[in-house]
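Sample pair:
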Amino acid sequence: MIFGGDNHPPYRSQASDGGPITGIDPDFQRALEGQLGVKIKTEITSGLPALLTGMQSGRYHAFNGPVKATAAREADFDNVVWMTTRSSYVFLKENANKIPDSAALCGLKIAGVAGSVTEVQVKRLNTWCDAEGKKAASFVGLADTNSTVLAVQAGRVDAMATTKTAAIDVVKKTPDTFKYVSQTDEQGAGVDLMALLTPKDSGLGTVLFDAFQNLFDNGEYAKIMKKWGLESVMLDKPQLNPTVTD
């Protein structure tokens, strides 16, 4: 099987000169290989649109995201939900006085991966900003997570929106450079369901869901999630095409 993927630490990381892909996704792929009895290869590309069209054209069998499960995506793809997330915002540590909390994000320029869950979360944040009489943040959509990190480092944006898991990873690796704040429930954060996607017409949706169910049942899911410090976003069981709204 061929999975599409983007550079999105800590889920997937690959050096610019190639080399092995490391992260949470490869760990799950090895576990899924044991369930499916087939090898899984990942091809790295840039941007969610390219990954979606790549699956629809038959180039990729699946994309493990994790991508927000939505009703719109369920029209074309089976959504196998295996974790949750909350949005967080990473910024330069030297700007900590400027961004003491998530309320300070109103009116700032925020980068995020175009078409990702973070774009929706910034819209929710802006609804709160407007209600508070504050200026809306502006969203700058970029191709991948690495691009958003570089934009913050270069000062082209004030912060990057990402999953809390990715925010923790960035700050853990470079504690002297970055800090982060998390969006609150009051600001529309909520909890989003995050999924693996596979084309509906491929017939792989139920196959991959059953494989994930086995990983939940045999303890491999919990082992991988705990290895990466993801206890706070674990689920009790996977879900297939949950009833959700955009």
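Helices lie at 24-36, 48-56, 71-74, 117-131, 145-154, 164-173, 205-218, 220-227.
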